[in-house]
C-alpha cells in the first residue's frame, strides 16, 4: 500500500464529507425554518441525486482515461464553487427563482460528491499491494475499503452535527463561507500530493463499454440501488422533519441525532471485517444476503410499532440505531464486493457504474421520502423502505458465490 497516497486521498475524502454532511443539514433546516414543506425540501435535492447518476457513469469513464487525481481535484473544487454560489441566494427573490437557484447549487454539489467518492474508492483498489497471495489481498482490500467507507460515514455524521451547530453560531451564509475556505485548502493538498497517474487505465475504455458489465456487477448495482433508496426514503426528509415538526426538537437536537446515527453507522462499517468473521459468515455474498434480509424484517417491525403508536420516541431512537448497525454491514459488504468483482484496469468504470446505481437509489429515495411523508407520515416512509429492501434481498440472493 502506498501509504502517503492513500493518506492524502483519504484526507481529501474526509474533508469533502464533512462539508457534504453539513451542507445537507444546513439546507434542510434553514429552508424548513423559512416555511418550505416536505415535498419542496425533497425537490431541492433531486438535481443533486440526478447529477450523481450521470457523474458516476461519465466520471468512471473520464477517470479511466485521465486518472483519478483529475476527477478527485475537480470534485473538490466544484464543491467550493457550489458553497459560495449558495451563499448568494437571496430569499427576497421570486420563490421559483429561489428554488431553482438552490437546486442548481445542489446539482453542482452532487457532481462534486460523486466525482470525489468514485475517485477515493477506486484508488483503494489500485493502491492495494499486488505482490501478496490472493486471499491476503482480499482480506486487505476488505479492511481498507471498510476503513475508508466507515470513517467517511462517521465524518458525515459529524458533518450533520456541524451543519446544525454552524447554523446556530454563524448563520447560513457564514457557515457556507467557512466551509468553502476550509475545503479549498484540502483541494490544494490533493493537487500537490496525489500522483498524477493514479488509476489511469493501460487500455483506454471506449464510451460504448460503459454499459457492458458482468451479471455480477449488474445484480450488485441493482441491489445497491434499492438498498440506498430504502435508507433515504425515511432518512432524507421524513425523519428530520418528523423530529422538528412533530416532536418539537431544536436544530441542534435534530442535527445531533442525525449525526449520532451516521457516526455509529460509520464505526460499524469500519469494523465490518472483524464482525463478519466473528459471525461466521466469511463469504461476502452469503453474508450480504443474510444482513439485507434482517434489515427488511427490521424496517417492517419499526414501521408497525410507529403505526400502532407504541413508544414512538423510543422506537425511533432505538429502532433506527439498530437499523443503522445492520445497514452499515450491508453497505460495507457491497463496497467490498464491487471491487472484488472487477479488475484493476476496469475499476474506475465499474465503480462509477455501481455508484451510478447508488445515486439512482438516492434519487428515488429522496423523491419517495417527500411524497411518503406528505401522504402518510414517517410510518409510510418505513413501509416503503421495507418493500424496497425486500427487492434488494431478492437481487442479493442471485449474486455469485465467488469473486
Q: Layout of SSEs?
A:
Layout: H1 3-33, H2 38-44, H3 46-66, H4 68-87, H5 95-127, H6 134-169, H7 171-193, H8 215-235, H9 238-246, H10 251-270, H11 272-279, H12 284-307, H13 312-340, H14 347-396
Question: What do these coordinates show?
Answer:
This protein is mainly alpha-helical and 403 residues long. It has one domain (3-194, 209-396): MFS general substrate transporter like domains (Growth Hormone, Chain: A, Up-down Bundle), CATH 1.20.1250.20. The protein is 82% helix and 0% strand. It has 14 helices and no strands. Helix 10 (251-270) packs across helix 13. The longest helix has 50 residues, at 347-396. The radius of gyration is 20 Å and the shape is globular. The model has no long low-confidence stretch (mean pLDDT 79).
Keywords for this structure?
mainly alpha; Growth Hormone, Chain: A; 82% helix
Q: How would you concisely characterize the structure shown here?
A:
With 403 residues, the protein is mainly α.
Amino acid at each position: 500500500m502506498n501509504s502517503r497516497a492513500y493518506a492524502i486521498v483519504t484526507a481529501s475524502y474526509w474533508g469533502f464529507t464533512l462539508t457534504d454532511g453539513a451542507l445537507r443539514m444546513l439546507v434542510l433546516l434553514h429552508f424548513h425554518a423559512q416555511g418550505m414543506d416536505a415535498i419542496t425540501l425533497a425537490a431541492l435535492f433531486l438535481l443533486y441525486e440526478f447529477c450523481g447518476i450521470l457523474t458516476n457513469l461519465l466520471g468512471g469513464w473520464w477517470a479511466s482515461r485521465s486518472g483519478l487525481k483529475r476527477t478527485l481535484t475537480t470534485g473538490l473544487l466544484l464543491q467550493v464553487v457550489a458553497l459560495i454560489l449558495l451563499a448568494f441566494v437571496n430569499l427576497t427573490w421570486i420563490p421559483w427563482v429561489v428554488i431553482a437557484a438552490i437546486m442548481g447549487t445542489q446539482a453542482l454539489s452532487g457532481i462534486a460528491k460523486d466525482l470525489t467518492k468514485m475517485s477515493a474508492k477506486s484508488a483503494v483498489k489500485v493502491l492495494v499491494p499486488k505482490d501478496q497471495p490472493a486471499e491476503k489481498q482480499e482480506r486487505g482490500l476488505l479492511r481498507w475499503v471498510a476503513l475508508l467507507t466507515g470513517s467517511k460515514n462517521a465524518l458525515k455524521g459529524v458533518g450533520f452535527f456541524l451543519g446544525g451547530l454552524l447554523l446556530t453560531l454563524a448563520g447560513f451564509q457564514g457557515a457556507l463561507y467557512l466551509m468553502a475556505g476550509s475545503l479549498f485548502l484540502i483541494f490544494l493538498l490533493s493537487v500537490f500530493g496525489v500522483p498524477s497517474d493514479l488509476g489511469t487505465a493501460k487500455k483506454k475504455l471506449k464510451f460504448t463499454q460503459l454499459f457492458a458489465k458482468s451479471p455480477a456487477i449488474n445484480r450488485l448495482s441493482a441491489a445497491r440501488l434499492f438498498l440506498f433508496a430504502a435508507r433515504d426514503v425515511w432518512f432524507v426528509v421524513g425523519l428530520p422533519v418528523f423530529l422538528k415538526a412533530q416532536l418539537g426538537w431544536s436544530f441542534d437536537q435534530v442535527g445531533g441525532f442525525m449525526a449520532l446515527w451516521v457516526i455509529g453507522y460509520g464505526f460499524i462499517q469500519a469494523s465490518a471485517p472483524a464482525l463478519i468473521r466473528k459471525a461466521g459468515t466469511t463469504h461476502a455474498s452469503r453474508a450480504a444476503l443474510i444482513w439485507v434480509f434482517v434489515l427488511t424484517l427490521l424496517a417492517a417491525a419499526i414501521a408497525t410499532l410507529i403505526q400502532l403508536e407504541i413508544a414512538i420516541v423510543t422506537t425511533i431512537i432505538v429502532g433506527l440505531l439498530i437499523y443503522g448497525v445492520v445497514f452499515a454491514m450491508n453497505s460495507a459488504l457491497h463496497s467490498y464486493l464491487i471491487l472484488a468483482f472487477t479488475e484493476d484496469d476496469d475499476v474506475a468504470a465499474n465503480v462509477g457504474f455501481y455508484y451510478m446505481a447508488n445515486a439512482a437509489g438516492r434519487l428515488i429515495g429522496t423523491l419517495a421520502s417527500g411524497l411518503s411523508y406528505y401522504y402518510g407520515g414517517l410510518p409510510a416512509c418505513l413501509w416503503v423502505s421495507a418493500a424496497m429492501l425486500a427487492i434488494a434481498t431478492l437481487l442479493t440472493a442471485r449474486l455469485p458465490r465467488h469473486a
